Amino acid sequence: MKTAQHEVRMVETPVPVPAEGEVVVRMTSSALCGTDMHILDESPLNPGMLPAGAPGLPMGHEAVGIVVAIGAGVRNLHEGQRVVASCLTACGRCPQCLEGQLSACSGGGSLLFGCQANYFRVPFADVGAAPIPDGLSDEQVLFAGDIMSTGLGAIERAELKFGDSVVVFGQGPVGLCATAGARARGAGLVIAVESVPERAEMARRLGANVVIDPTVGDPVSAILELTGPIGADIAVEAVGLQQTMDLATRVVRRGGTVSSVGVYGGLPGVMLPAGPSSFYHRKIVFTLCPSGAARLQQLMRLVEFGGLDLTPLITHRMPLSQAPEAYELFRSRKALKIVLLPDTADAISAGRKG
Ligand SMILES: [Zn+2]
Ligand SMILES: [Zn+2]
């Protein structure tokens, strides 16, 4: 739980009881996400967001597990099923949900909280959770609920066509999923922009043709040399900084698309550079994680039959009891994806000793 600004602690809480429409899931794998760091370090700990009586904000929104209890009215799920949940919950009934934009739900949908725990609740479970096909492991489908859907969503919302040139700024977990998604969807040239060597290497492994280090020379001219002077068809902004938004806008051709999946939580606003070389007649789209059971099923089908394997992103596996240490490691950027696993009796005592 986030118990103070920048602080995560392990806290004992009762096993949740499902309310109407909810299921309770016993976590079997749960990941840390960049958004967790935004929540931990940038968003104030708003007392209005804390569950009644809880000592803090339950962290975690990317997890898989086994359904252990079903609330009233849940029809599509049953106890004992392995499920993955979307990180954004959605009511399934509001106008945005009915037109298929579940991540824009206005009927009570929000970020899923509390997945970095032995048990977590999934509200609107029929809408936002899907059973996992038998042949697929936790780690193969864990990212379908969040970073995989978001990264691929950046490419889909940019309406990538076969052979398009794509630049992806930032090869953190979401940026890497966008790189893999661009390759899977038939991009021609995929250029990744990243300065951390391990992330650059992962970008090549997941389908980037070229990786440009933005700290060496002028990244805009390096990109335009590869795409031709008119610029790239698509630029994905997956960092969440003014600087990368600026660069993305400068390398996209007239008529092209800037597709942002950055979380600009630490900024008061984002500015777009004006002028014909960077601004006129571009499309700019902002995407939150595409969510819902149907989306999850599509992504799991892509893993099962389409060969998209994102498990190389997992650099660390740690017991849940070491979540505070995992956050420190993640904050240092020495880890790409950390998966928290339920503690065995041994791991619990080791974690407490530590
Ligand atoms: Zn996330
Ligand atoms: Zn809704």
Helix and strand composition category: alpha/beta
CATH class of the largest domain: Alpha Beta
* CATH topology-level fold name of the largest domain: Quinone Oxidoreductase, Chain A, domain 1
Low-confidence stretches: 346-354
Fourth-tier CATH superfamily name of the largest domain: Medium-chain alcohol dehydrogenases, catalytic domain
Mean pLDDT: 93
Topology:
Elements: E1 2-4, E2 7-8, E3 23-31, H1 34-41, E4 63-70, E5 82-85, H2 95-98, E6 119-122, H3 125-128, E7 129-131, H4 138-141, H5 147-157, E8 166-169, H6 173-184, E9 190-193, H7 197-205, E10 210-212, H8 219-227, E11 232-237, H9 242-251, E12 252-260, E13 283-286, H10 293-305, E14 314-319, H11 323-331, E15 337-341, H12 345-353
Parallel strand pairs: 8-9, 8-11, 9-10, 11-12, 12-13, 14-15
Antiparallel strand pairs: 1-2, 3-4, 3-6, 3-15, 4-5, 5-7
The structure holds zinc ion (2 copies).
